[in-house]
Write a structure and sequence with these properties.
Length: about 475
């Protein structure tokens, strides 16, 4: 089975907008154009279609086929290129529960459009991504609901004896693949057990998605990186073939994956599919992005790193990170209102930083990163004072690119940010551990952001200015 090496996602972390967007955010028509663009120009083979947290067009297959017939007659949807929906998890997102049912209904309808367009069609959509997974029952219910109540309608008979499949046409495919997305560290550390239980006797291969942004937001940069590496080890050891996906963004906090420095490729060697988020696609020149995609497609996944870092280290570092968040939460939430919205998204229901009843709330990871980077205190620094000398040696062995990533982070540090973020001990420890050269242009830009916040004037423009310099919004 061919598994794409790159998945384009709709994460709104870009500063610059692409040429095909009509305004400074994506609308439904732009999302269709983007899917065509990443397939036809960038050579990316998969587009996530994100129903979770945002409103997107569920006629995407029909519109792609009717708008770009020449291209898609050569590149078959479902074979050479893929649309992979990310659906709500009804166990967590109760208000969006029925949207899951509506989204699943688009799968056989999309197959009907493909059947009309292609002589010998394959299902254009045949798997979905389920977010915030914590147990196998969440996957089981969705799998059975689709099989029995969506595709299963074909076998029903009306009171007059009419078979539904004969009347409306068959509902195909009969079953779909489920891609679990694990978004917090406890879930990631038991992902192998969840996958084993769900796959047992049903699948001999699966795709499994690990988040990097939300675990970092909720537990810190180093704990999120270590947890992902441990999860990949455990998935590799399963009896079935697992094709991991990892959700990485440009800054180290969110995975360190940009077209010029794909640290994630080195850190997660067993990953099959890496996400190309909006900043990756639009904040670098076309040739750089295209070359990075081609290079990635030519590479091959290998075995995961075997790391020795203990869970105690993860717990201690994440505990220190979480202790600090209340001191900055109100500031981040207030300034976060000025971060440009590149895609129209709802609040992501989630973990420590979101809205499951915790007293402390944060915006999405992209907005959090944008605020912290724009004042010159990158979030990777939060809680690093808990990294002892022995921890440091172990962590550097476990994360080979850590020093390089932290040099990037510290080059974006502005001492003036300590007037807002009272974490002097983190800066002191970071200076002890890592060498770096400050960026003078960035130092001046972040000082202007701090001054704009102080005066409550021009904050959005200042955030955009710093984002252009670092080439990602958040």
């Amino acid at each position: 089975m061919h598994i794409p090496r790159v998945m384009s996602t709709q994460h709104p972390d870009n500063v610059e907008m692409p040429f095909f967007a009509k305004q400074n955010y994506f609308d439904g028509e732009d999302e269709i154009k983007e899917a065509y663009y990443v397939f036809s120009h960038l050579g990316i083979e998969e587009q996530m279609w994100d129903f979770e947290g945002k409103e997107v067009d569920d006629f995407v297959v029909k519109k792609l086929l009717s708008t770009y017939p020449e291209f898609f007659s050569e590149k078959v949807i479902g074979l050479e290129v893929r649309i992979t929906p990310r659906v709500p998890n009804p166990e967590v997102e109760r208000d969006e529960a029925k949207l899951l049912a509506e989204t699943l209904e688009m799968i056989p309808r999309s197959f009907d459009y493909a059947r009309k367009f292609y002589d010998d069609p394959t299902p254009p959509i045949f798997e979905i991504i389920v977010p915030m997974v914590t147990k196998s029952e969440e996957l089981e219910r969705i799998y059975l609901f689709y099989r029995d109540f969506v595709a299963g309608k074909s076998k029903l008979t009306l009171a007059d004896g009419t078979r539904v499949g004969d009347w409306l046409g068959e509902f195909e495919p009969e079953t779909i693949g489920i891609i679990p997305l694990f978004e917090d560290i406890p879930g990631m550390l038991k992902c192998d057990a969840v996958v084993r239980e769900f796959a047992d006797g049903r699948f001999d291969e699966m795709r499994v998605f690990l988040a990097r942004s939300d675990p970092a937001l909720n537990y810190g940069f180093i704990p999120a990186t270590l947890a992902a590496k441990i999860a990949l080890q455990r998935l590799y050891d399963l009896e079935i073939d697992v094709y991991p996906i990892i959700g990485v963004g440009c800054p180290p906090f969110r995975g360190s994956f940009d077209p010029e420095n794909m640290h994630a490729l080195e850190e997660y060697p067993s990953v099959q599919t890496f996400t190309a988020q909006s900043a990756f696609k639009y904040d670098y020149d076309f040739n750089t992005v295209f070359s990075a995609v081609m290079s990635l497609k030519e590479s091959m996944p290998g075995k995961p790193d075997r790391i020795e870092t203990s869970k105690d280290t993860i717990d201690r570092l994440s505990g220190e990170y979480r202790k600090r968040i209340p001191a900055i939460a109100e500031f981040v939430n207030e300034v976060g209102k000025f971060v440009p919205k590149r895609r129209m998204r709802k609040l992501h229901i989630g973990l420590f930083g979101y809205s499951r009843g915790d007293r402390i709330r944060l915006p999405r990871a992209i907005t959090f990163c944008a605020v912290m980077y724009s004042i010159g205190f990158p979030p990777e620094l939060i809680g690093i004072s808990a990294l002892g000398d022995k921890d440091y040696e172990n962590v550097c062995e476990s994360i080979p690119t850590l020093e390089s990533q932290m040099e990037f982070v510290l080059s974006h540090y502005n001492p003036e940010s300590l007037k807002i973020v009272p974490f002097e001990d983190d800066i002191k420890r970071a200076r002890e551990l890592f060498d770096f050269e400050p960026r003078e242009d960035y130092l001046m830009a972040t000082s202007r952001t701090i001054n704009s916040i102080r005066k409550q004037n021009g904050i959005s423009d200042a955030i955009i200015e710093t984002g252009k310099l670092r080439r990602f919004l958040g």
